[in-house]
Amino acid sequence: MSTPAPAPASRSPWRSLRHRGMRWWSVANFVSNAGTWMQLTVQNLLVLHITGSAAATGLSMSVQAAPALLVSLLGGAAVDRWPRKVTVAVSQTLLGAVAFTTALLVALDRIDMTALLVLAAVTGVIATVDGPACALLGNDLVPVADVPSAIGVGALVHSAGRLVGTALAGVAVGFLGTASAYAANGLSFLFVASVVPFLRPAAGAAEPAAAGSREAPARTEMGVREGLAFFVRSPRLVALAGITGLSSVFGRNYGLTLAVLVTGPLAGGAGAFGTVSTVLAVGGIIGAVLGARLRKPSVRTVGLLAAAGALLQVVAGLSPSLAVLLVLVLPMAVVESVSDTAGTAVLQTDPPPRLRGRVLGVWSSIGTVWSLGGPPLLGLLMEWAGARGALVAGGLLIAGSIGAGLLVRRRGGPVPVPLAAKDGDVTGREALGTAA
């Protein structure tokens, strides 16, 4: 008797939602994202109200981002050493306490710039632990093959939460005052913390890092070095960092390049750029859905998609009219969103479970360098070549660099990553069965 063939693996972008824990986690993330964007929407206005200075607004944002550059490695090590669910519950509770403290100070009219900067810095420090812990907790809830779906769903939840939170901020401030946005964000953090204890991993889910186990490094410093060494010695992760860095600096700052292109050479106004931004957002959502269908993401996939997006950017830079630009912007956003989902899946599954928090800590530090250094570099390029020149030159640089890298790798062959395996370590890359 012949045995029936196994059912083909699902490629549905929503397959991670088959698992009860992921459904609850997505609801919690939506609530949290909505609360966060409520607060972010009013925070800049609050700084402007207190100081009347746009520079002070930028300073408050930089102060909150600075800890990601300085202490993300320690935050990632903490995520690997501590139980994931406990870490998320505690970090969310602490973030809620900061939000409630800010709400109280605003309500009592006791807030000033010094207090805002201190609270922003505290939030940034907590986020160095909360960010990687939340990202990895979601992956712990689903089978390894469904991790790309979980990441894609997370991107959609983030976008939906941003839209809802931004809209609710105006309503809340109009009827209840600025403090209500901070209080609502505090409640959203507490909601997440209350959901976490009830989350259960699905059958076939990867075991979380053995945080706090006997095999964990005895000292945090050693753990930090181990994660950094793994990242540097992994050709896949180094290549991913290079691709993402080039794309972030020369291909993703559309809020700057397209704004200048639309309002300058294409003779559009703020409304025209708003239309372009809307199309970019729609393309990002479509790309997140398509990216969630991936089952075997790889660095090669990320590179090819990034190169395709860069070539579209080159053509967009030569657009003769706004209509042509709008036609090109949608596939640009789709391709880059799929590339982002694939890259995040590689980043979060390639290292062994015991190192994933530290690898995300390294990535956060690198990403902060890109976000701080990218706009000035791109601004200099635009000063020299204009908006069209910056789009064309940046796109050619990205596509050319990725093409050269693929040729070098094809000729040189794969490079093994020496890493002492520990009992029970199975990397996500092995589980997904893909090659870089």
Q: Which range best describes the helical content: under 10%, 10-25%, 25-40%, 40-55%, 55-70% or over 70%? A: over 70%
> Biggest sheet: strands, sense, closure?
none
Q: Point out poorly predicted stretches.
A: 2-7, 210-222, 423-436
Average predicted confidence as pLDDT: 83
Shape: globular
Radius of gyration: 22 Å
Structural class: mainly alpha
Oligomer, anyone? Answer: single chain
Order of helices and strands: HHHHHHHHHHHHHHH
Strand fraction equals under 5%
Topology summary:
Layout: H1 20-51, H2 54-70, H3 72-81, H4 84-107, H5 113-140, H6 147-176, H7 178-195, H8 220-233, H9 235-250, H10 254-263, H11 270-291, H12 299-317, H13 322-349, H14 356-412, H15 428-432
Helix pairs in contact: 1-2, 1-6, 1-7, 2-5, 2-14, 3-5, 3-8, 3-14, 4-5, 4-7, 5-14, 6-7, 6-11, 6-13, 8-14, 9-12, 9-14, 10-11, 10-14, 11-13, 12-13, 12-14
Account of the 3D structure:
The chain has 436 residues and is mainly α. It contains 15 helices and no strands. The chain has helices at residues 20-51, 54-70, 72-81, 84-107, 113-140, 147-176, 178-195, 220-233, 235-250, 254-263, 270-291, 299-317, 322-349, 356-412, 428-432. Helix 3 packs across helix 14 (356-412) and helix 4 (84-107) runs antiparallel to helix 7 (178-195). It starts with 19 loop residues before the first helix and ends with a helix.
